[in-house]
Write a structure and sequence with these properties.
The chain is an alpha/beta fold. Helix content is 35%, strand content 19%. It has seven helices and six strands, in the order βαβααβαβαβαβα. The protein has a six-stranded parallel sheet with strand order 3-2-1-4-5-6, with helices on both faces. Helix 1 links the parallel strand 1 (9-14) and strand 2 (45-50). It is globular and about 50 Å long. The two termini are 15 Å apart. The mean pLDDT is 96.
Length: 190
Amino acid sequence: MPPTPKMETALLIVDMQNVFTSMTTTCLPNILRLSTHFQSHSLPRIFTQHGHTKEELTPPYKNQLVRKWGPSGSIAKGSDDWQLMPDIAPLAAENENPIIHKSTYDAFLNTNLAEMLEEKGIQRVVVCGVMTDCCCDTTARSSFNRGFETWLVEDACGTASKKQHEAGINGFAYAFGEVLKTDQVCERLG
């Protein structure tokens, strides 16, 4: 394999919130390892947090996800489910790492994520978090579509089932970017 080109790289940690705790048993240690690696190399870490306002959770539902999942199946901003997981919250607070607040699967849609990455001169985005086949895959595809080289970290993503995880990974790998393991990301970035 040819050497990995040197590019300004950011880690995007997607939706590591209390509501998804059951989906993170195997991916959380790898996410923590990636976060430590990026921090030790002075590479930016950006976090996302998914949630809906009271207005979005009140009929008529203007948000497509609330229409799909209903208000009881949606994450209310400020709720316990909405909070970042205890292992993740301190990382987001370090050095004022940015948290992108979003209300759809795509962390680029209706947020300032693209502008933030461009201002930092980022060329490559490494995506991890939950859910593999929803927010991680959608955000990684959107990153690719915006011109960023994008890596999706297979063992640092989690979802509701193995079948869903594999579907998200395989779809991304086919047409959008590289799917790597945590060890490979750390090795390639030095």
